[in-house]
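User: quick one - fold this with magnesium ion bound?
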Amino acid sequence: MANHRFQSLETATQRPPVELNIPDGGIPSYFGEMVFNRKAMRDYLGNEAYKSVVAAMELGKKIDRSMADQIASGMKAWALNKGATHYTHWFQPLTGATAEKHDSFFEPTFDGQAMEKFDGSLLVQQEPDASSFPNGGIRNTFEARGYTAWDPTSAAFIMGTTLCIPTIFVAYTGEALDYKTPLLRALQVVDQAATDVCKYFDKNVNKVTSTLGWEQEYFLVDNALFKARPDLQQTGRTLLGHSPAKGQQLDDHYFGTIPERVMRFMQEFEYEAHRLGIPIKTRHNEVAPGQYEMAPIFEEANLAVDHNSLIMDVVEKVARRHGLRCLLHEKPFAGVNGSGKHNNWSLATDTGVNLLSPGKNPMGNLQFLTFFINTIKAVHRHADLLRSIIASAGNDHRLGANEAPPAIISVFIGSQLSAVLDELEKIESGKLSAEKKTELKLNVVGKIPEILLDNTDRNRTSPFAFTGNKFELRAVGSSANCAAPMTILNAIVAQQLKDFKSEVDALIDKKGLKKDDAIFNVLKEYIKSSKSIRFEGDGYSGDWEKEAEKRGLSNVRTTPHALDFFVSKDSIQLFEDLGVMNRTEIEARHEIMLENYQLKIQIESRVLGDISGNHLVPTALRYQTLLMQNIQGMHEVFGDKEFKKLTKVPRNMVQEIAERTSEIITLKEEMIEARKRANAVDDVRKRSIMYCEEVLPYFEKIRVHSDKLELLIDDEVWTLPKYREMLSLR
Ligand code: ADP
Ligand code: MG
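Assistant: Sure. Structure tokens for the protein plus magnesium ion:
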């Protein structure tokens, strides 16, 4: 007998390959063609207007109103030429998605005709009707409105037929309502702090930019199967499903070739990305079946953040054209790896030096060590804050599970740099002897470039690893907006660099130490005091948990508790001192993150309840009825005597189905009661904790029964696509 389930799957997932219309000229022929970049600006703006945008981009100079009109008019001409009909202020509200409200360029004129209108005021500021974006009470308490304001540091671009103008989103009272505003503030303070420190080494440095290269992991599933899974559709992850016999054990996906259909999808989204100026460079399979990764060449952090947000939209759109769905959730499938978004981060000077790349001479290396050690020290001071910013309902499935970096924040630097720090730690305090300095220069600081060439020790289990010329923050979730972790990382490093500078200056001014001696002295103290954050071993091991506890490092596995760190005294002081966020903004964000968490678990719980009620139980009962008919028939044929022995299997099955379905229903009802209790709690933190501790545990309990039923029940009648089907894309 033909397997109908299999046949319908075949039909649903088969489709002709999508035609690709990628020009022949290669990437250089279309890279950035949809971006109002410098070339487009030079073509469409007068000299003065061009200079004023560049000054705004490079030096943060204000653009005056008449200039804004000229820029808007050039931008409009460019956009119309490219076929755009609408424009939008594009921003990144705290929902995690990007937001846009499209307005047409077209406006009627008084004499009944139409003209295309777009002036400086429309470019610079807009008031989106955005009362539904999360604001953590800011706009209720203060002012009912917010506005979006042009961010000239990120170029405008065209998506489809819409000119998108990157903007920040703030309340009329000035509080940030988006991801971008605090990021821009953090980038500014790290620029200032790092530039000041650079001046110890090179007076010519006038600006330091933070660089970010993200690596984005994602899953692809067939759209037809996706649509048949209410959980994937509504929560982005599967809440049920037995692991396939063959998962990722053989690593064959990682090393295998990319399937034809996936390859076409990749080619097309990369084409779209390149037209938008997103420098996607790398594509490959990931460890789990159906999992892939993309990575661009790194860029200035603000632009890289925008590009990551943009690409998340692009891949979802392109995937649909290929009959696929792109899953950006951190853990779409249990039992195989989840997805992360590694944030490769560094600082670069306007003189072209990567501050986390060892220099060419001892002085350059001292500069490298300064930034390297200050970063470690910053992470040591604010490990908990860093932990809090990567917390989300989705990422809870990765952190602490045996795959992604653990929930314990630590820093990996490799054995060779560890040895360098150990040497520096031994130097005497105060003025260094001439011999000591020579020795340091020759044997310790001078040796760094050489040893880094042999950068063989790579630790994949560390949440924050030094990888030769940058740090890699690996614990960020795949669906996260990079702006949040980048705000924190740049802010904590900025604070640290400021403190470093005042300590060094104090040693020079008050103790009369030479500059080098003062720097060595402070670094030595930092190496000592931040030692507990350094860990070179296996981050997944149980031993590390015990060791970390001894060292006093936090190990918080769930979001609502991790978020407490975001509003700790230290965190608030950091944000306020640097002017990155004020107390209102911090508290509002805390509330929004808690609420996001709670709503996600609530939705998952409802979906699980629904699937239990209208997929699992009905399917189980139907199959049980079939078994009982079989048993009855057996009785008719064999009579009392042999019947019992011969129907042992179906009778046991009937019993198991009865027990498991009744368990599912009981658990589902208990889960609803738990939800009701939680919903009655006003305080969002308490409510989130209740969702975490009293609602969430039911998911696993229900799943156990469901996954057993999946194995017990005839494959033909099971209504939900199975893991082995979803994870084997062709
Ligand atoms: P890996 O060994 O981790 O694969 P790659 O050299 O491929 O390292 O880089 C991974 C990511 O790190 C890429 O996006 C790359 O552009 C980025 N990257 C490289 N150098 C820097 C830097 N100085 N600052 C930020 N990101 C960087
Ligand atoms: Mg990497």
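One thing worth noting: The chain has a mean pLDDT of 91.
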